[in-house]
Design brief:
Elements lengths: L7 H16 L5 H13 L4 H9 L12 H17 L5 H13 L6 H8 L5 H11 L2
Helix pairs in contact: 1-2, 1-4, 1-5, 4-5
C-alpha cells in the first residue's frame, strides 16, 4: 500500500473546515464538495479526508503557520461558511475561535462577513493584517 507524504498544513486546514461544516449540525453537499476540492488541489488523499470527516482531530495551536497560511485558513473558512448560502451563528462562533487561534482579533470575522465577495482579497488582506492582527 502506498502511503502519502503527510501535508500537515493541508490536514489542519481540512480538519478545521470539516468541523466548521458540522458546526451548524448540517454538513451541506456544497461544503463537502469544497473540502474535497481543496484536498484534491493539494493532492491530499481522499481516504484521509474521509477519515477526518468520520473522526475530526482536536484543533491544536495554529501559531506556527506563516501569515500567508493564516490568511489562507481564514479565507477558506469564509468560503466554506458561504458555500451553502446560509450563515449560522454556530459557524460564526467557530470561525471567531479559529481567528483567535490564528492570532487575529475575533472581530476579523465580522469584517470578512461584511466585505466578503465585495472587495478584492488583496485589499482585504492589507486591512486584516493592519487592523485585526
Amino acid at each position: 500500500m502506498y502511503t502519502y507524504p503527510m501535508d500537515i498544513v493541508t490536514k489542519k486546514k481540512l480538519n478545521i473546515l470539516i468541523q466548521l461544516a458540522e458546526a451548524d449540525k448540517h454538513f451541506a453537499k456544497s461544503e463537502r464538495e469544497m473540502i474535497f476540492k481543496i484536498a484534491a488541489d493539494k493532492n491530499f488523499p481522499e481516504p484521509e479526508v474521509n477519515a477526518l470527516i468520520r473522526n475530526p482531530e482536536p484543533i491544536d495551536t495554529l501559531g506556527a503557520l506563516s501569515d500567508e497560511q493564516k490568511f489562507d485558513y481564514l479565507v477558506a473558512c469564509m468560503e466554506l461558511m458561504h458555500a451553502d448560502q446560509k450563515l449560522f451563528e454556530s459557524e460564526l462562533i467557530f470561525c471567531k475561535s479559529i481567528a483567535i487561534k490564528l492570532g487575529f482579533k475575533k472581530n476579523v470575522v465580522d469584517y470578512f462577513v461584511d466585505n466578503f465577495g465585495k472587495k478584492p482579497l488583496n485589499d482585504m488582506k492589507k486591512v486584516v493584517f493592519t487592523d485585526f492582527y
